[in-house]
Each structure stands twice: as structure tokens, then as C-alpha cells.
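Sample intake sheet
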Amino acid sequence: MAATTTNHGHDVEAGQQQFSKRGALKSLLRKLPLPFKVILILIFPIAGIVLMVYPNNDVDFGEACRELAKANGTVSPKYCSAKFEDGNPPAPELWATYESIINMPVCNGYQSSSPEQWLDPMASWVLPVLGLLLMIPVSQRGITRQRESRKVTSHERRAIREAKRKEWQAKHGNSRLPVESWGGHRKLVNWRWLIPGHVWEFKGHARGWLKILADPGSAFCGTFSELARDVTLIKGKLNKLQQFDRETGRPIRNPTNDKKALVARLCILMGQVEWTEDTSLALEFLNGYSGALPLARDTVRVLVGGRVRLMASVVLPVAFYTGSAVTAYYKASVSEVGDNDTAHMIAYGIWFLFILAIAVLANCSHLNADTVQSALQVVLQHCVELSPPGEPHKPHPHPQIQDMQIRAWKALFPDELGDYIIYQRFTENRTSSVAAKAREIITELQRPENAEKYAEIENKYRDLGTDPFRKAQFQCQTTKLQSRYIDSLLWMRWYEEAEKEGRIDVDLKGVLGPIGSPVVHRNLSSDEYRYYLEGQILSWIPVGISCGCAAAISFTTPKVALSCRSLNHIFYAFGTFVMILLRPTLYQLKHVPERPNFKPSGMRKFLIEIVTALSSFFSHFNIFLITWGTIFQISGLYRNCVCKVGLTDSYRAWVGRPDAGKALTQWMPDTWEHRYWARKVWVPVQVSSWAVFLLLCLISLGMKEWVSGKVRGRDFGDQAGGEQDDQSIAENSSGRVQMEEKPGLAISEIQSSRGSSHRTGSYS
């Protein structure tokens, strides 16, 4: 078996080398020196800075209007500073051709924003949007107590450098390490030690927020799909398992149905947790062990109580953002009708509405990763502490429970220490593949050349003492919004597999042999891929609505033409639409059908590299549009001649079209045209777009509250029934395992399990 695995790995490595010679984009990027990689990553920000700094920013459109009015002779220059006042007539129109202004100073730069012009949008839209963006949950990994309290000392740094020196000497026969160079060997000094850990943590969160801006459609798809599967699971499974007395309204107690209902609730809660075999093992134990009903109930209580409160996290920024929208509406419809700056401020406020919706939807039922990790770790500890009656420190004799215990030990200690624990406690097990792998690893470490490492593992094992779980390294993480469609699908697949007859139900079915965990494949069928793609397209609609409404307002701001701002919104809509198509395609290409000896073709690998490169490009492109496009608007870079004349007429003049110089542009503020578009387009579009998004948020919040109520369940409030169910139950029938169910674990004990999760009692 080992030889077969080695040959297969050699074939895969040879195929990768052959593919790298074909000049794949990713392989080429990996070989580029570090400065070129930095330039590729920063090309869009550098372009934005150059566009802001290079042109002249002393242009004054008001002065240009007065010069054109003097040259015209029929319009007074005093109207060039006109503003809307109720009861005053609109200002006269002042049209000028492109050829009459092309040589004016106004076309040699841009008009920088005054303090009022950049403070107003910053306070009204940008800062509230940043607050909402920072509150959107990103992928979060639970931190164990050992990782949390660990501090790297200077002695450990020297030991790491010495180990790297020995490794280099063993490979190259040279005791001197090479000097660090561009694109060369890895650095010997880890600069992360010089920077506080919370800075690196914020860096990871910032990357998650930027990915949401790069692909908001997939974030919507993740939240919507999670909600849809929750509703499906509740209506299809949970409602059938929960039965209530018609006269009293109290739940009818059935240990089997109650346990399955609690596992269904856990699957609903775990939809935003990344599916792995270790995390599903905890639910497998709760579902398969008949004595885990109190533990399952307490786990649901902890996870429900550990969710982020919507009022504290979202309501206040949303209220502030809505207040800014009301202020902008008042300006556009009453106090500053027809003002161009007000119109663009409304457009950008509508453009950011999708961030508001994502923040509300993502925070209605967000779980903290540390809470999930602590609760699941306690479940696994219950699993490994199951023992035969009268022998509390021995593995349970039932083969399937023993198989669960082996996998639980490996989940709690994923390194060689876990293999050593399995090797010591399950020496007689010959059915578990995990135990066989652990014996193979420990046998390899027992060789003379690995004596030092083996002694170190033995010392770690002795240090565990009577409380081994204080050094457990169980890990789980919440998934990012863009991946929740896949993870919720995997949890649904796990639940459907676990509910099959005789799959993992240990005590109630009396299974005599070990049965592995439910097989969950990550690949998508053709129908599932089509549903995924359709869901992505439907989820992009809110982004398209916000971009379309913002582009409509910018387009109808005189001059009525395709300008820099409207094109910015259209390009962002196009870029995000491309991203929602690339994500399912890339996932389908990477997760090929899982069958034995399957080798992806070179064309599939090449397509993966192409789609990955396109995804990276459009991600940077979308981030550039929404960040630097906002900066250009606030700084005043969009107040230039090209944007005012219109991109179409500017392009015609640039290519030398003979009719380009005759294009007319409106230079006078507060004209009849400004007031007309303000009342006919700006205000109605703002009201309708806000109504659509608020309705979307209210419907989603209502459905989330309904799901949360179903997950909490009425039986949690029935103390009498709960106490009756928590009494010890002993089953002793033919074909079943004799066990005793103890009272459930306290919530405070589960919440504090990250630091000291050892329990004085155990199942017997």
C-alpha cells in the first residue's frame, strides 16, 4: 500500500512539473522576483495615486463659467454662482462647444474639493459604510488556550535558526546559510515576532473585507443559501421530529426524536462553520450515542447564546446610515434641488447599499468561532471519556464507539502527540485506519535516528498528567460568506447521510462492527453546479440594483451623458458579475469527481490556472473601483473637463472625429435641466432603491428570527420536561450496549472549556 501511494505521489509530482513547463500563469508568477510581485499587487493603487497627484488641481469651474458667460454676451456671469432657493426661477442655460473649451485652463487639471465638499460625504456615507464593513463577519479560526498564551522567546528563536541551519547543511553539505535575496530562500528571521499578534489578526480580517468588496454577489449567495437550507431543514426534518400535545401545548417527550431534533438544530447552527471530518465527528457522536441527549441540549444552548447580538452590532450603524439618507433626500428634494454635488452624494450612498444589506444579513445569526470550538471540544471530550462499567480509564469495548474515540483523540491532538496517545491507549485495535496510521508513525519514530524526537513526544505525553485536555489543539473556524453555500451544502449532505438507516446510530441499532463517518463528497453534480450558478446570478441582483441606480443618477447629472462616475458604477457591476461566474466554475474545476486513481488532465489544470488568474485580476479591479473610485469623488479628481463633457464626446475628440468639436456642454448651475432631473430621477430613484433594500433586510430578518425561534425550540423553556429527560436512563436489551446517561453539562462549564475543560466525572 505504501509503495502504491509513493508511486501515485511521484506521478502527480511529475505531472505538475510537466505542467509547469507549459508556462502556466501561476507557475510564472511564483518564479517572479518579489519586487515584481509587489508591483503587480499594487498596480491599481499606484495608478490611483498617480492620477491624483500628477494633474493640476487648481482648476475652478466657476471661473471657467464666468469666462464663457463673458464671451457669450447674453448671459450674466453672476448666475455662475447661483444656488437653489425656493421661489427663485432657474438660472439661464449656458452651452459651450468642446472646441471652445479644449484650450482653456479648465481642461488642464481638476478642481479639488473644498472642505465642505469632502467632509459632507465622508460623514454621511463613507464612515458609516466603513463601520458596517468592519462589522461583517469574516472567516475566523478558534484560538486554543495554548496558542493564545504562547510567547516566542529569544531562546526559541535561536533554536529555530539552528534547526534551519542543520536542515540546510543536511541538504546542501554547507554549514553556512545563504544570504537572503529577492525571490530566494525563506527568511531566517520571522518579522511577525516583531509585530503584535492583533495587528496580524486585523490584517487577515482586512483581507476578508476586501474580498467581500471584490465579490459581493457571492457573499449574498452565501447568506441566502444558508437561510434557504435552514428553512428546508426545519420544514423537512425538524417539524416532523417535534411533536406537541394539542391540549396543553407541551412537547411530547421522545428521547430518540428529541436527540435527532437537537442534531438537526446543530446542523442549522453549524451552517456557517467550515465542514471538516473533525467538526462533523462531534455531531456524529451526539447523533449516534443514545446517552448524549443532555449534552446535545446544552451544546445547542451554548451555540444559540453565543451568537452576536444584532442590536449591538448592526442597528446603530444602520440607523446612522439611514439618517444620512434622510438628510440627502431633504437636500435633493427641498433645500438643494438640482445641485450636482448632492446628486453624486446620493448616487454613492445608493451604491453602498449592498454593504448595508450584507452587514444586516450576515450578522443576524453569526456565531463566534471560539464559542463553537469550545462547545465541540467538550463534546469530543465526552466521547473519549466513555469507558466500560467499573473501568473508568480504559477504552470502551464497543468497536464503533472505540472508533469514534480514536478519531476524537486525533481531532483533539492532531500532531504526533495524538498518534502517541492512540498508540498507547488502543494497542489492540486492528480495525481503525486512524489507529493503523498512528502505529505506523510511532513505529517510524522509534527508530534510532528519531530517538530525540521520540523522547520529546514521550515527555509531552507524561506532561499531560490527569488533565490532558488542557493542551488540546482542536481547531475549527467559521467560513467566509462567499463559501457558505458550499459549507451549508456539505452539512446538509452530512445530515442526510447520518439519517440513513444503520449509518451511525450505535446504541439504538446495536451495530456490532465499526462504521465510519458518513461519506461527504465535495464535488458538485451537473444539476448542483447549475443551481449554484443560478443562485449566484440571482444573488447578484441586489448589487446590480445598487450599481444601476447609482449609475442612473450620475448619468442624469448635467451634462446628461456617460461620465466618469456612471462608468465607474457600470464597470463595478460588470466586474462583480464576472466574479460570480468565476467562483462556481473554479470550484467545479478544482473538485473533480472523487473516484479511485483519477488524474486531472493537463487541460483541466490549465483552465484552473486561467480562471484563477482572471479571478485575481477582477478582484483587484473591483477593489480599485470601489475604493479609489470613492477617493476620486471625494478628492475632486472627477471634476475635470473629460468627465464634465462626457466620455463619449471626449473619445470622439481624442480619435479625431470631425463632429466632436460641436458637442455641447452645460456650464451653468441650477438650470431648469438640473431641477427637472432632480425631481424626476434623483429623488424617486433614491426612495425606490432604499425601499427595495429595506424590504429585503426586513424579510431576511423576519426569516432569520423564525429560524432562530425554531432552533431555540419551545422544549428549552419546559423545565419539568427537561428535568425528567435529564434523569439517568439505563438500557439493557439484546443487541444494545449497556450504558448510563448522566446529567447534562453546565453551560458555564462548556463556555470555560477553552482554558480548563477537564471534567471530574465520566461516563461509565
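Comment: The mean pLDDT is 74. The chain is about 65% helix and 0% strand.
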